[in-house]
Each structure stands twice: as structure tokens, then as C-alpha cells.
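Morning. Coffee machine broken again, so started the prediction first thing and wrote up yesterday's gels while waiting. Chain of 303 residues, entered below exactly as on the submission form.
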Amino acid sequence: MHIRTQQALFCGLVAIFALSLAAQQEFAIRTDVTLVQLHARVTDSQGRAVLGLDKDAFQLFVDDVPQPISVFQGEDAPVTAGIVVDNSASMAPKRQQVIAAALAFARASNPKDEMFVLHFNDRARFGLPSGTPFTGRIPELESAIGAFELGGTTSFYDALVTAQSQFRFAGYARKVLLTITDGGDNSSHATLNAALDGAMKAGIVVYPIGIFSDDDHDRNPKVLSKIAQNTGGEAFFPAELADVTKACVSIAENIRKQYTIGFKGLNDGQYHSLRLTTKDLKQGPLHVETRPGYLGGEVSYGN
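Came back before lunch.
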């Protein structure tokens, strides 16, 4: 073989090896990081929502270290939302009010949102017809929400785990769960930690509504508060049944007033603290509400 031919062949092999190594390194980098998304609500000193801020108004800290923001969306970005409704026997006298409240949430949400409905007692079942994972159509959601099967016990943690699985098919990266229950969990196979870790790892924001009776020995509002706090949501405990609708509308409005912020997180399975701050010279001191941390290796579905 001619010397020049040998040199050309050698150079070609070196180039192929270099490209292969670069591809392997790129793949390794991509598997070491993951996109983490936060949903943040900003309020002023009077508790009023502050809208119209841009990316430069925010500063993100992960484990107290400044982190660049790679994704930013203003308020009212569409979401994939789940409506999770308790069908246990004790819900019988609350059924009509809960249906009206859940439907009010759907009506007050962004028209571009996609939603699913999950009913649960001692088992969980989806409310939309088979083959329809999500819908934004109010008549379809009305039928799905109204499809109660009253009776049985309360497997709330199992319902949370089942709802999480539906987000694998989400069309949007923002994921929200509205849950309505009148009792504490008393029959799940899943644990609270398993349900909570799953929600955190999938980046799902949970808004629980607890309509507890004073004589319910299973009630545990601290559980709902913990789920909300750790996922970046808010728990509601209406004093009157008539206030459930007001809570659902408030949740829908809060979701529409949130900013979406994304950054490159670690894929290490560890918990990392988060702190998001914002400033605006015209508005004065501002308060940011978002989740307190994330689990390395979060799964981000949707666009």
C-alpha cells in the first residue's frame, strides 16, 4: 500500500475514533443532567399577583449556589392537569357540591389545558373513556367528573401513584394535580413517602383540598399540607362545603398566574434545595412561592 494511502487511512481512523469518543462524551453529559422545571407565583407586599416579569428579574439558587435559568415562560402557560376525586362512602352527601367544584376548576383553567379525571375509593379508575387520556372539552370533563361510584374505603396514596402514571403521556411539561378528599388514607398499598417521592421526581405540583369532618378519626390535614409544601402546591381546608368551589377556582387562577422556570439539574438521585428570588424596582419587595427542592433524576414529560 502506498505510504500516502496508509497515512490517509490512519488519519481517517483517528477522525472516526475522535468522533466516536466525542459522541460518547456527549451522551454521558446528557445522561448526567436533566431538565428541572419550577412553577413560581410572585406576589407583592399586599399579596397581589405580580405579572409581566421577564427572565432577568429572577435569580435561582440550587443548594445556595447561583444557577443559570435555561427555560422561561411567562404566566398562563398551559398545563396537563389531573382531577383526583374521592368516591368513598362518606362522600355521598358531598357528591353534588364536589362535582360542581371540580367542574368550576376546569372552567376557570386555561382553555388550552389538557386534563384527566381519576376517581378513587379502595381502587382507582379513570373517568374519561378508554382511549381518551386527556381532554380540554368541558362537556367531556363534566361527564367524567360526574361518573362517581360511591362506596368503599379511602386509598388516597394509591390514587396519587396511579395519577402520576398518566403524566407519562402528557403533552405539556407543566403538571398539576387537584385532589379532593374528605378523609385520611385508610386502605392504600402505597405509602405516603412513595406517593410523595413519585410526585416530586415527576415534577408534579399537587393542590389538595381536604373537606374533613370533626368526627373523622382518619383525617390528617398535616399529610395534605406536607404533600402540597413539598411539591410546590397549596393545601385548602374549607370550613364549609360551599367553599370548595371557591377553593377550586382560586387554585385554577393561581396556576394561570405562575411563571415556568427551567434549569439543568443533576441526575444523581439526591435531594437538592431550591431558592428562587425576584426583584423589580417599580414593584418594591416581592415574594416568590415555589417548591423547596427537587430530586436528582426528575422525569420531564411533555413539551
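The first strand starts at residue 33 and ends at 43. Going to sketch it on the whiteboard this afternoon.
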